[in-house]
């Protein structure tokens, strides 16, 4: 099963992701072994801190060339922080859309509660771009705000959840959030959010695919990890996936 990752930090030495070229090679080796065939490089853009896209774009191009050596197609992108300076960043076009198409990956500050200002920023960005909201399961440390998440979907935003959350790498609460979003049909895409070559947030999409396809209809998991990511890369419309649990008799061991 071929897989696609639309959220990654392989472009080395420009954010908190892959540190150097050697680690990028190690991570790409693991990605190849995980049968990841397409990767969107989405380095962090933090308005107020990131002022020049030239180095970021150059490093993304370096990554795309390197990925070819591993039989992987690379694409440009970015992960834009919706912070208090982001509207200035929007005015200055401090954004790299996914594959230079309509979709932009955005995130909220994990250390702050999502408030009215955050939602205003989301709205302003949505006037110019189709938004993919990164790792939604990680913003809610108590209970998921299902009303808020449903409103995002109704507004046309794409909900992305990290593969590592299903594996429990981010703790039991975040794992519970991920499964709840999955079973309520509130996820459009599962992505890796690769930051390292090993230990934590390393390439693990196939591991997650194998885990989930033992419990849910395989075609649904394929939608989340191949069909919808490919549609996003190609700038096409995607819908949240209504997953169906397998009966105990049909589950793979």
Content of β-strand = 5-15%
In CATH terms, what is the architecture? Alpha-Beta Barrel
Name the CATH superfamily classification.
Metal-dependent hydrolases
Q: Would you count the extended β strands for me?
A: 9
User: Mind summarizing the main beta sheet?
Assistant: 6 strands, parallel
Count of alpha and pi helical runs: 9
Helix content: 25-40%
Any idea of the CATH topology? TIM Barrel
Secondary-structure element order, N to C: EHEEHEEHEHEHEHHEHH
Instruction: Choose one word for the global shape.
Output: globular
Strand line-up across the major sheet: 3-5-6-7-8-9
GO molecular function, one term: manganese ion binding
EC number: 3.1.3.48
Family: Belongs to the metallo-dependent hydrolases superfamily. CpsB/CapC family.
Catalytic activity: O-phospho-L-tyrosyl-[protein] + H2O = L-tyrosyl-[protein] + phosphate
Summarize the structure in words.
- The chain is an alpha/beta fold and 253 residues long.
- The protein has a single domain, classed as Alpha-Beta Barrel (TIM Barrel), CATH 3.20.20.140.
- Helices cover 38% and strands 13% of the residues.
- It contains 9 helices and 9 strands.
- Helix 1 links the parallel strand 1 and strand 2.
- Helix 8 packs antiparallel against helix 9.
- The longest helix has 16 residues, at 218-233.
Overview in brief:
This protein has 253 residues and is α/β, with parallel strands linked by helices. It has helices at 21-33, 54-68, 86-91, 116-126, 146-154, 163-166, 172-183, 205-213, 218-233, and strands at residues 3-5, 36-40, 44-45, 73-75, 79-81, 103-107, 130-133, 158-162, 189-191. The chain has one domain (3-233): Metal-dependent hydrolases (TIM Barrel), CATH 3.20.20.140.
